[in-house]
Design goal:
Blueprint (H helix, E strand, L loop, with lengths): L2 E7 L3 E6 L5 E6 L2 E4 L4 E4 L3 H18 L6 E4 L4 E5 L2 E2 L2 E8 L3 H6 L6 E11 L8 E2 L1 H7 L4 H23 L3 E12 L5 E4 L7 E5 L9 H4 L5 H18 L1
Antiparallel strand pairs: 1-2, 2-3, 3-7, 4-5, 6-7, 8-12, 9-10, 9-12, 10-11, 12-13, 12-14
Bound molecules: cytidine-5'-monophosphate.
The site of cytidine-5'-monophosphate has 12 residues, from strand 9, strand 12 and strand 14.
Length: 241
């Protein structure tokens, strides 16, 4: 596996070509943490490794449950091999419990449960601070059809049920999370990007403690020790199976 040239550098990852494999990419997880669309920034030694290992475990689990994704395999502690996708510029957020932007936007108190879970769409556009959009906006702003958007939302809810169950078994309440989808070469839409404590809210189901990037956003403590606990609990779960 020969790492090729840098294709793109994002806030949390670098994306490299793979020599001789035009339909594959290498994602390299960085130690950078950003919040509030890059307005708050820091670096945490070991964060890239933790998010790579956690994302790899989660995509492996989803693969076992027949959720197609771009994930191929973990290459080393900070890198993974994925199928090349054209990312659809949508952030698909699923919420089980009110937290974060929805509490500010709609005045819903934190901790209120949503039954059934909510799906929200945001337009992935840094210059606009990723605004919330509706389905009609999504058809106009992206190349997806109604059938494709319906299937993305169904998939997001299916992923929610699987992840909520996984995290429950590790003593964590899955509050909300963000997914991204992309098209592989033949146009099929698959789950892409990462699923980690950077992109999920996870609360300890006994103490209610925040165990995710809110620790950084809200200066609640040591991010790395919290992310280490998430990885350890996922490892114990996969070993116990
Ligand atoms: O900020 P908000 O409450 O809308 O975030 C909902 C969920 O989506 C949170 O788990 C957050 O970590 C995730 N998210 C993300 N990337 C963004 C925006 C939100 O991973 N750009």
């Amino acid at each position: 596996m020969m790492k090729g040239s840098l294709l793109y550098e994002g806030k949390a990852k670098r994306v490299y070509h793979v020599e001789g494999q035009p339909e594959q990419l290498i994602l390299s997880y960085k130690n950078d943490a950003t919040a509030f669309n890059g307005k708050k920034k820091d670096q945490f030694e070991g964060k890239g490794r933790l998010n790579n290992l956690i994302t790899s475990k989660i995509f492996d689990y989803l693969k076992q449950h027949n959720i197609p994704s771009h994930f191929i395999k973990e290459l080393n502690h900070t890198e993974q091999l994925v199928a090349k996708t054209a990312i659809i510029p949508l952030e698909v957020v699923v919420r089980n419990v009110a937290a974060g932007s929805i509490t500010r936007r709609l005045g819903i108190p934190e901790k209120e449960r949503f039954n059934p879970p909510l799906v929200e769409l945001f337009y992935k556009k840094d210059e606009l601070d990723d605004p919330i959009i509706n389905d009609q906006h999504a058809y106009h702003l992206t190349d997806i059809s109604k059938e494709e958007l319906d299937s993305i939302k169904d998939k997001a809810l299916e992923v929610n049920a699987l992840l909520a169950n996984l995290f429950k078994q590790t003593g964590l309440d899955l509050v909300d999370f963000k997914l991204e989808f992309g098209r592989i070469a033949d146009g099929t839409i698959v789950l892409a990007d990462e699923i980690s404590p950077d992109t999920c809210r996870l609360w300890d189901d006994k103490t209610g403690e925040k165990m995710d990037k809110d620790v950084f956003r809200e200066n609640l403590g040591d991010l790395i020790s919290v992310y280490k606990i998430i990885l350890q609990r996922l490892e114990e779960h996969t070993c116990a199976k």
